[in-house]
Specification:
The chain is α+β, with helices and mostly antiparallel strands. The chain has three helices and four strands. Strands 2-1-3-4 form a four-stranded mixed sheet, with helices on both faces. Strand 3 and strand 4 form a beta hairpin. The longest helix has 14 residues. It is globular.
Length: about 90
């Protein structure tokens, strides 16, 4: 299942999310929103509004077709089929 996230380079929750996927050997892609140019940031904001119109915050993780806003290792594990393997 494809895992993608929008993050902020200085966000501790984004760092924890990246560590979660690394520690579980889950391949993932990410983009640090704050390191993008203005045009790309505008495009990302439009995409985020489409993915999660009512919640704003980082990280924004997409696992398959599901979108999770914020650090939520329990939900990541559930969607990835990882039972009893939550690492905080």
């Amino acid at each position: 299942m494809k895992v993608f996230m929008y993050a902020l380079s200085t966000c501790p929750w984004c760092f924890k999310t990246k560590q979660y996927f690394k520690s579980h050997h889950i391949p993932f892609e990410y983009v640090d929103y704050d390191l993008q140019n203005e045009t790309e940031q505008e495009r990302i904001l439009k995409e985020i509004a489409t993915l999660s119109p009512h919640a704003m915050g980082f990280p924004i993780v997409k696992i398959g077709s599901q979108v999770i806003v914020g650090y939520n290792p329990e939900k990541y594990s559930e969607l990835l089929g990882l039972k009893n393997s939550v690492v905080a």
